[in-house]
């Protein structure tokens, strides 16, 4: 085991902490760790990320059930379209993407590079929405219907994103739940974990017949992430909501910048 792999396994623990603290964002660490430290193909890395994030989120969900922070109706509305979208994306879209997306002169964008750059773009957009303060307004029946429609549409988009880049979607789900479902940040974090659980694990099952999974390695990485979940969930009890929200957005911007730098200098 070389030093990069040691750093990678420590990163697995940090991935769990991030999920426990923020209700998402684990894939923002997991995918780069698999790609840049363990030298895995981005397609396999996104599949592994879905398993790690999904399993870790399931543990976090069990912890949060006792806290009674989960909004189950909102989670149900969000999850259904996401499950359909992620399964179809992993089974049909990913296998049929061309190996070279664009080639101009001596510059070539491969499928793997395009997925990582798209991943970083989504992270940046999500962080902007997270920092932006949502407008408050009196709720009504029409507002409620509009909210549900927004959640359905965003659920489809999150499923597509999960399928493309192996992200559980917490960095989109949490801002969406805050902005459209009017949940507090801690409610949004708790609710996002149950959505991420189903979203990620269904996406992973779509890959089982297409990829060769190294279960021993994946199990060790996941176990370290689960340990981190307990640490992150514990520390979340001592962090103010405003601080949690701002730091989450800053963390996402930093990780997006790292990914873009690595892709254009690889």
Verbal overview:
It is a single chain. With 266 residues, the chain is mainly α. It has one domain. It has 10 helices and 2 strands, in the order H-H-H-H-E-E-H-H-H-H-H-H. The chain has helices at residues 3-22, 26-37, 42-65, 72-93, 111-131, 141-165, 170-179, 185-205, 215-236, 241-264, and strands at 100-104, 107-110. It has a two-stranded antiparallel sheet. Strand 1 and strand 2 (107-110) form a beta hairpin. The longest helix has 25 residues, at 141-165. The protein is globular. The two termini are 23 Å apart. The relative contact order is 0.22. The mean pLDDT is 82.
Number of E strands: 2
- Percentage of residues in helical conformation: over 70%
Gross morphology is: globular
Mean pLDDT: 82
Give a quick account of the main beta sheet: strands, pairing sense, barrel closure.
Answer: 2 strands, antiparallel
Low-confidence parts = none
- CA-based gyration radius: 18 Å
Q: With helices defined by DSSP (H or I, 4 residues minimum), what is the helix count?
A: 10
* Main sheet: strand order: 1-2
Q: How many domains make up the coordinates? A: 1
Percent strand: under 5%
Content-based structural category: mainly alpha
Q: State the order of secondary-structure elements, H for helix, E for strand.
A: HHHHEEHHHHHH
Distance from first to last alpha carbon: 23 Å
